[in-house]
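A common beginner's mistake is to predict each chain separately and then try to dock the pieces by hand. The better habit, illustrated here, is to supply every component at once so that their relative placement is modeled jointly.
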Amino acid sequence: MTRLLIAALSGGLFGAGLLVSGMTDPAKVRGWLDIFGAWDPTLAFVLGGAVVPMFFVWRLAARRPAALTGAPMPALPPQRLDGRLIGGAALFGLGWGLAGLCPGPAIASLAIGGTPALTFMAAMVAGMALFGLWNNRQPRAALA
Amino acid sequence: MEPDWIMGLIGGLMIGGAAALYLLGNGRIMGASGLLGGLIDGTGRANWTERAVFLAALVLVPALMVAAGLGAASEPVAGTGVLILAGLLVGFGTRLGNGCTSGHGVCGISRLSWRGIAATGIYLATGVLAVIIARMIGWA
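With all components supplied together, the output reads:
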């Protein structure tokens, strides 16, 4: 039960932060990526505001034997830069720039973004499902 | 309304707070594409309730805030065809690369994970490229 309560609080705070920061506004995200045009630096403050406290939280987590609910702290995956990471990040970035939406803000926009948000979400879910089908047909290369 | 950068910083602190709560509370990395993707392809079946509750709150809270006048509904910058193409790229790409702006960006960079830092550099670069291309062919 505590796990679900924490999940709800965390998801809600994430959604509120995305809305407040302007990340749910695709024009703002496009502006951040438009470094050769009318560049909008807001996202640097969003990322900085999230990363700096999290840097210290990771230190704190490393000193704890387990999370509050008793779950183990997540292990750092092997630090390999493989084709999947590079290709996946490249494809993701192209879509991000075209629509001005990444997964978190896309989900947070579901009830406030009208038909375009639903359209993007449906396509994103389809892309994830396609990956699942494709991945199952690959000769076994371990997915983290 | 405060200047954009202050709102960005406040929102960023809230996002970081959410990631901190999820990590210290449930021992999990807050990554939007992984949370959703695990429900889509079945790899997250073991803890699907936790994922579903997280995602439901992620949809609900911004909706309530907009209804209460605490934020604006989002306006699209692309037409239907571009939205579909972009959605497919984001869905497939984040699963292939095992993360997005929250997992690789917020949680990975702050952990000084080379994978997170490299992924963020790559998706920022192709994001910039996509905006240039979109403008050249009249999608912007």
